[in-house]
Amino acid sequence: MTATTEINKIINEDNLVYKKTNLLLDNEMHYCPGCTHGVIHKVIAEVIDEMDIQNETIGVSPVGCSVLAYNYIDIDWQEAAHGRAPALATATSRLMPEKYVFTYQGDGDLASIGCAEIIHACNRGENIVVFFVNNAIYGMTGGQMAPTTLEGQVTATTPYGRNTALNGHTMKITEMIALLPGTRYVTRQSAETPAAVRKLKKAVRKAFENTTEKKGLSFIEIVGTCSSGWKLTPTQSNEWMKENMFPFYQLGTLKDE
């Protein structure tokens, strides 16, 4: 049992049964309206619950909106420095190889500050799962340009749109990771419709099953929204994502060995 789990004790004639509550904690949601993080949390929690691995799962969250995940999913958590979640997850997995270890990271954290950490963890083939939430912006710290910001996209630091000549090309880090020999499963999903959520859940389940089979690193990118950073309503954000991000970040599985 994790420390924060409420335990309902059911006393039978011969034994004592402990009944676990739902993995999603009853805390007030901190995310902005329309944010994709809440849906992703629910999917991850459902898979952990269905696989009955709550007590064997350890999440690693770094800096950014992703750090709030420990407020909502009732498992053991570690907090890493900005971008360093793959390094901490590597140590955790090697020290406790029987555990299901995953990182939960945003695009500014993983693709920019933590680029070296994720590349080398993937190249080594660490037996962990990486959840990479890509909303093409630094969400928590003011909406600055990230490596994943699209060409021409307006952000707090590119008020006239991202200029390739000045700011460099948009990074497709998931495609880069799929080329590394240590990755076994690399996929890009979304969570904007019920059908998309079902596909995402199937991918999450497969990733955790790969951990069971010691197959190496599974990497799931989730293309998401940032209504506050994009300065759009939740409905507009979904439409903008479909019209602009999906053509560039094409959904589907890039690698499955």
Automatic annotation (TrEMBL):
InterPro entries: 2-oxoacid:Fd_oxidoreductase (IPR051457), THDP-binding (IPR029061), TPP_enzyme_TPP-bd (IPR011766). GO terms for molecular function: oxidoreductase activity, acting on the aldehyde or oxo group of donors, iron-sulfur protein as acceptor; thiamine pyrophosphate binding. The keyword Aminoacyl-tRNA synthetase does not apply. Residues 70-222 form the Thiamine pyrophosphate enzyme TPP-binding domain. It comes from Ancylomarina longa. The keyword Ribosomal protein does not apply. GO terms for biological process: cellular respiration; small molecule metabolic process. This is 2-oxoglutarate oxidoreductase. Keywords: Oxidoreductase.
